[in-house]
Amino acid sequence: MASTASFLFDPNLSVICDEAVERAGMNLQEITGTHIISIRRSAGFMLSSWSNRGHRQWTFEEVQEPVTPGQVSFDLPVGTIEVQSAIIRRAGVDTEIYPISREDYLILHDKNLTGRPDRYFVDRRRDTDGTNRVQVFFWLAGENTTDVLIFNVYKQVQDVGNAQNTLDIPFRFQEAFVAELAAKVAMKYNEAKWEALQTLADNEWTLAHDEDRDTAPFVMSANYSRLHGRP
Questions:
Q1: Does residue 67 form part of some domain?
Q2: Residues 182, 187: Cα–Cα separation, whole Å
Q3: What is the largest CA-CA distance in the chain?
Q4: pTM to 2 decimals?
Q5: Residues 100 and 63 in one domain
Q6: Tell me: the pLDDT tens digits for 166-220?
Q7: Element housing 33 (H / E)
Q8: Residues 196, 149: one domain?
Q9: CA triple 5-174-166, angle to 5 deg
Q10: Which of the four pLDDT bands, split at 50, 70 and 90, describes residue 111?
């Protein structure tokens, strides 16, 4: 028998909630609008928690910012959590630039001194209008219009949305999402099943998170020549 040759399984939020409800031991026929609102709210808080559990490969994005003379800062896209790494591209050559702390940036003697940027500070804050804002301050200030700052940024997962939306997660994390949502549903409506479901959720998260890694080899080397009197 031939296989399907398809990779289309991508359930929407409604299907995921139904699965979570069944695992929590609840009867789908007894689910009300209040239950649905509560479960969707739990799903939203769960994604917020996921943002604090380390980086995941699918949430990285490259951001490029052409530099203008005298420029010292710019805003990263909405949803950015932090910067993982950064370079400056000048005349086709990429050079790493380095993060510094808020205090290190504060004590720079002349923040408008121009030159080739070699360091940056990431300011993560919540503005008075309630907007979460991530702003990059770099130093030295821009000195031409040909330099390009390139940042590898870690972004939050998109909101769960309505029942017909699919989730902003890859196939390999779907089981982890359902398992944890089922535990959260049980915690609210069927506490007798909560402990077992939470254990399963923890295991599924670990499996998915451990697989979602950079597979490039990590190599360390040491130079022992100085121990033998050689430069």
A1: yes
A2: 9
A3: 80
A4: 0.81
A5: yes
A6: 999 999 999 999 999 999 999 999 999 999 999 999 999 999 988 887 666 656 6
A7: helix 33-50
A8: no
A9: 85
A10: very high
Q: Does the structure show a pLDDT above 90 at 2?
A: no
pLDDT attached to residue 51: 87
Tokens 């997660």, located at residue: 169
Is 76 in the same domain as 104? yes
Residue 11 CB neighbours (<10 A): 15
**96 and 149 assigned to the same domain:** yes
165: in domain: no
Which amino acid appears at position 191 of this protein? E
Tell me if residue 71 falls in helix, strand or coil.
Answer: coil
Identify whether residues 68 and 19 lie together within a single domain.
no
Residue span of the structural domain in which 189 resides = 13-51+170-210
How far apart, in whole angstroms, are the C-alpha atoms of residue 179 and residue 11?
A: 14
Distance from C-alpha of 180 to C-alpha of 24, rounded to nearest angstrom: 11
Secondary structure class of 57 (helix, strand, coil):
helix
- Total domains present in the chain: 2
Two tokens, residue 162: 């309505």
Same domain, 69 and 87: yes
Question: Which of the 8 DSSP states describes residue 1?
Answer: -
Sheet strand arrangement including 93-96: 60-66, 148-155, 80-90, 93-96
Tokens of 212: 């979602």
DSSP 141: B
Q: At what angle do helices 194-211 and 174-189 cross, to 10 degrees?
A: 160
